[in-house]
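lol so apparently i was supposed to do this last week
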Amino acid sequence: MPQKFSAPRGTRDLLPEEARAWERVEAVVRDLSARYGFERIDTPLFERIDLFARGLGESSDAVEKEMFRVSGAKGSEEERSEWALRPEPTAGIVRAYIEHGMHVRPSPLRLWMMGPMFRYARPQAGRYRQFTQWDVEVIGDPGPMVDAELIELAHRFYADAGLSGVVAQLNSIGDAACRPRYREALLAYFSPLAGQLSVDAERRLRVNPLRVLDDKELDPQLAAGAPKSLDYLCDACRTHFEGLRDLLDLLEVRYAINDRLVRGLDYYTRTTVEFYVTGREGQQDALGGGGRYDGLIEVLGGQPAPAIGFGLGIDRTVMAVQAQDGRAVLEPLVLAVVSAAPDAAAGRLRIATALRNQGVSVRVDGLARKLGRQLESAVKAGARWALILNDPQGERLTLRDLVSGGQRDVAIAEIAELVAS
Ligand code: AMP
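anyway here it is w/ adenosine monophosphate bound
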């Protein structure tokens, strides 16, 4: 018996049924990227591990536990596994921004990217080792207008993708001026309670106390009593946050304050955001997230520039769309070319090709089957119309509406217009 293979754990094959829903979301991504004035960038799927370590901060899960390492051919430099598949897009984009001297371009720079990300975590529903993100980044704008613009963009994305009830959870975690004081406050609060923390949270307390709030197992009562970053903001951060809230109200964007939202990555400053469908707010339910990273570019060796970025998860968005509306995936094929004579495949192909030339989406039956079977298979494939060749050459044609069952004789020249209407 030959060995059977299956997709690696934590990965998924995109099968045709789901691909339709996926393509709809991709079309929304392209449309919105253009409509909101973003330019496309693509970076490699793997980078030096230290880029992520420095960019994401050593205490982030993505770096500590979830890095998907890559090694090269035996004996090569890469064999030592200095590379990792990208866990998120920002570090690579900032690396490219610095490497190509993009700071001299007209500012602010607006970039988008869509592609797979990799995290070597334990797979579960909604959490994969390979997943896809749409990412938007704006470099060179301190906000808060751009923060509001991106939150509104994300809302529009979910709405256009067919999801309702999405709410932005919002927080501000301050900046280099005020965060040290907040860290101290968290340390002072949690240190005496260390015995009640998970092993993971206890370690986080030492490395980055903010991330204790991120811990899945944190007792809700402990969390509720913890100091809140919003109470520690300096004047500049407070003004920024209030400005952002005013703008969201102006744009009528729904949001809720979540004072535990510190995000997993160390480099965030001020604004942090995550998107959820109301009522589905568990760990694996975030549809997207992002925030401001005003200090990152400098940390990676570039000229300091304020920046903000969002990563919106395509897998979870498609799943949520399907959960809300199963019909959203049915985008029927337009027309199937069939014929009364089972073996008139050449005639069917010629007519199908002529119609495809005119821009009609066409399926053509190559098997020598009876008309009834051809029609059955056209319906199963989701065709809206069947074009029946009454003779082998297709000189006499009948167009049948597969939904109403009505039909009429047609000339080839009128079909494109008929099926479009
Ligand atoms: P993050 O940077 O971790 O907030 O990720 C941004 C978005 O990507 C999340 O809100 C999810 O929608 C998606 N995402 C992150 N990790 C995974 C994963 N392991 N599997 C599927 N989607 C993910």
